[in-house]
């Protein structure tokens, strides 16, 4: 993408309304724009990151055997009256009347609707286990939306729902998602720690939050330092192997970890002092096993191998991509801007033409841009007539992992400079060497 | 995807509520499920087709130089009060009050919001032309939602918005989208005919609907038969070449074409009788040039090369993916079910195991499934224990382009049968030959 043709409105000044660094950087980098309180437009740069995050989530859901569908945003109140949550949900539920005065709502979550889908079609244990997910907008009318897309009202969520014949099957489905989540966050460049959690309005008796550590995190967390070195389930993980999944779950829940709500000071103090980790964290995922809470209320049953009807056991599993983007920034930035993990960077590399219009610089940049684009890189090419200093600042701000800098002096020697955004290291090499180095590192 | 692990709830009986064939087939094939009047869940099979349709639309928007962002579904009433459309829009607009009693609405279209985004950032003619698009849910509270997702209330739409300094630039942007639309529909397996259209509540003086011919179409259309043979702009189309784009526009508007609203009987009758085409059609896209209607009302101006402020000229360009899916079915089906064009088929091919559990059949199917998946095919593998007749009926119903049938007798000879869903032609060949034939045809 040539920057002269892209739409990336960089803000020169720090926006006053931003209380946390990710919100400030997302506004400054032209990633998002607030349209109303807690309601955002994802501008092109932000949309690219959001898409990459979503793609990784989808790939890991698919790998685990979950099946994608797409439920609508608007739901009928009747479904929620069946489960008993319509009255219980409170002011965070956006209630709507359509032109025929029917009571509708903008879905804050989808347990009711997926249970309705399930009970319409699935009648036999032979069709279980089943895990259905979608990636869809939700709305929660927060009293105080803030922190940009970290706590917005309209937000994107991946929510999966598992259906099993009994508790044992449901716990296996839970372990499957547990492993998928570890893989997902790791691929997003995050170390997420699963912490036993309260189940809140979703219900149930087994639940974990996945928390990443960040100084600016919203909640206080306590855990054993060992988490930092635990192995992430590899690409070879067999999601059909119940024992293997259970081993992963047990390993990752073998040492202490809790948010402040679930904190047990005595248990934490029992850990040797040097191995305790007390920090701030950001919740990036939440999984629940809630048994038959919805299937009972809504009559979601299957015929078992015994010929009798069984109420199915369910779980739900959420990750918020629009929340993950700022969470990644909180975990990865410096004073000059964002530092994207490779996997979610809006572009793989940026070519900076320090003297647009100079025939040699233009030719060098054109060659690099064309060669790397052809090799499958998502390239940004800063071909604008901004000053070099502005171009450097923009490249640092938007956090693209690699900068390829073509200035007139280096280009006269057939050379360019490569800068690594994470380390700041710069290296001068020939144009061909630069192209080859990037291709080799892919 | 193994069918035993997929979620594809086939209906055996014809659903009574479906008035048109696409609605009937989408319900029977388990592509969609109605949740409330005019509000649908896209089940996994439907979601796959919807994604393929959306991907083609996105690729052609990107190719034409349009830039993707994502605006939210909920909008503030204030924006629409600025443009004057808040009161004018009528009952189709879903009006909402949030917990703070602020007036919101579920966007039926986004002219106001994109104009607001534009005016916040773009100040100079140097940033023009600009075309911003998104693919997002919309809601129109139709009095009588019907025909499944053909006329639903919550629907997906690709809407693009162009910004230019003057009318000449805007007409070039219009021509650019015109060519992109011809390419898009062609890649979707459709022949769409652009017809001069009324601008309705969007406004403006230049507008075309893209109509595909289908016996079950909602509107009567009249055109010259030549359209059937006009060339589609190729992959080499230069979207920076204003003259070339104009030539495409002129060619495709050189002969008579009109919907009944814009029909001029005298002009139509002037066409030699053998060259007249009078048929039913389905609108699959609509493009508008509406000048300064919104930019005037909302103050979207840029500084021109003359140093003065200019109100920008705008256009908008819509395609509805959730409407396109049934439109494609209307145009391509037979008495046994859907016949997907290759480009949007939910799977590229289906392997039908006529005797699951038979070692030789299982081995043959496993080989074919693994080889073709590895070669990049989106494969479905019917590994269920349904009767062969049921499997054939399902494969025909869901319309996958190629069926590879492995029965015990053929497999004993190392052979399978390949059936082309479109022609019904069957051919027996060795397993290797079948794999190679598919790979060669990709």
TrEMBL record, chains A, B:
Tree of life domain: Bacteria
> What transmembrane ranges does the database entry give?
none
Any one GO biological process:
prolyl-tRNA aminoacylation
Q: Name one Pfam family in it.
A: HGTP_anticodon
Any GO CC annotation of this UniProt entry: cytosol
Query: Per the record, what are the reactions this protein catalyses?
Result: tRNA(Pro) + L-proline + ATP = L-prolyl-tRNA(Pro) + AMP + diphosphate
Compartment(s) where it occurs, according to its Swiss-Prot or TrEMBL record: Cytoplasm
Enzyme Commission number(s) of this protein: 6.1.1.15
Where's the Aminoacyl-transfer RNA synthetases class-II family profile domain?
48-341
Per UniProt, the keywords (alphabetical) are: Aminoacyl-tRNA synthetase, ATP-binding, Cytoplasm, Ligase, Nucleotide-binding, Protein biosynthesis
Any GO molecular function: proline-tRNA ligase activity
Query: What does the record give as the function of this protein?
Result: Catalyzes the attachment of proline to tRNA(Pro) in a two-step reaction: proline is first activated by ATP to form Pro-AMP and then transferred to the acceptor end of tRNA(Pro).
Subunit and partners = Homodimer.
- Annotated PANTHER family: MITOCHONDRIAL RIBOSOME PROTEIN L39/PROLYL-TRNA LIGASE FAMILY MEMBER, PROLINE--TRNA LIGASE
* Entry's family note: Belongs to the class-II aminoacyl-tRNA synthetase family. ProS type 2 subfamily.
Q: What is this protein called?
A: Proline--tRNA ligase
What gene is behind this protein? proS
